[in-house]
UniProtKB/TrEMBL annotation:
PROSITE patterns: OMPR_PHOB (PS51755), RESPONSE_REGULATORY (PS50110)
Gene3D superfamilies given in the database record: 3.40.50.2300, 6.10.250.690, Winged helix-like DNA-binding domain superfamily/Winged helix DNA-binding domain (1.10.10.10)
Source species taxonomy: Bacteria, Bacillati, Bacillota, Bacilli, Bacillales
Domain OmpR/PhoB-type: start-end pairs: 131-230
InterPro entries attached to this UniProt entry: CheY-like_superfamily, OmpR/PhoB-type_DNA-bd, Sig_transdc_resp-reg_receiver, WalR-like, WH-like_DNA-bd_sf
This protein's UniProt keywords: DNA-binding, Phosphoprotein, Transcription, Transcription regulation, Two-component regulatory system
Organism: Metabacillus halosaccharovorans
Protein name: Response regulator transcription factor
Modified residue annotations for 4-aspartylphosphate: D55
DNA-binding region listed in the record: 131-230
Domain annotation Response regulatory: ranges: 6-119
Pfam name, any one: Response_reg
Length: 230
């Protein structure tokens, strides 16, 4: 029983909603019903969901509006289950961020399989994102996006500054000499010009302090170089 997976089912037809809940429960997930767009918004704002199933034709807020809100504010998977058979409706929903589109009437086994497939794909993508992230304290470096955030704020880094942080965060316990940093980041021989490294480290420290003035991220090891502060 996978009690950790919560699926919100937004469907105004009671019989179909009950059927979808049964499908979800038999797959080992937890189901929660919403019968209107307005009710759905309350659950979306109060709860943490692993997937949302949305009917497009709903009383109150439309399924299209809910889809836009969910995909704008989160990356949880969304499956549309709708009686709208027009190709354009499917295209619009998929372009708006839906992960799948199932038309009514539907096959129970197919819905179950699509839910499993969508959740599995999402988990794979999430684990891939995590393996491409390095963290230290509240500093997160995303190697795919080449972005560093501190305290939830994105740092505006130059390419060299990013490479210095990437190098240091990849070996958080290592003391890097100025020669280490220069030759690794600039790919040139270090001839003792310390000013270049000093300026870059000073800029990085300034940006880190601006993002979180209560933490220190880089320490100077006198006579040796720099390392991340544990």
């Amino acid at each position: 029983m996978n009690d950790s997976v919560n699926i919100l089912i937004i469907e105004d037809d009671e019989d179909i909603n009950r059927l979808l809940c049964n499908i979800v429960s038999k797959s080992g997930y937890l189901a929660k019903s919403a019968y209107s767009g307005t009710e759905a918004m309350i659950y979306l704002e109060r709860g943490i969901w692993d997937m949302v199933l949305i009917d497009l034709m709903l009383p109150g807020l439309s399924g299209e509006d809910i889809l836009k809100k969910v995909t704008k504010e989160s990356d949880i998977p969304v499956i549309i289950i709708s009686a709208k058979l027009e190709t354009q409706s499917k295209i619009n929903a998929l372009r708006a961020g839906a992960d799948d589109y199932i038309t009514k009437p539907f096959d129970i086994e197919e819905v179950s399989a699509r839910i499993d497939s969508c959740l599995r794909r999402f988990r794979d993508q999430s684990s891939m994102r995590l393996t491409n992230q390095i963290t230290h304290k509240d500093m997160i470096l995303d190697k795919n996006a080449k972005v560093v955030t501190v305290n939830g704020k994105e740092l505006k880094l130059t390419a060299r500054e990013y490479e210095i942080l990437l190098l240091m965060m990849s070996s958080p316990n290592k003391v890097f000499s100025k020669a280490n940093l220069f030759e690794s980041v600039w790919n040139e021989k270090f001839y003792g010009d310390e000013n270049t490294i000093n300026v870059h480290l000073s800029n990085i420290r300034s940006k880190l302090a601006k993002a979180n003035q209560d933490a220190e991220y880089i320490e100077t090891i006198w006579g040796m170089g720099y390392k991340l502060k544990s």
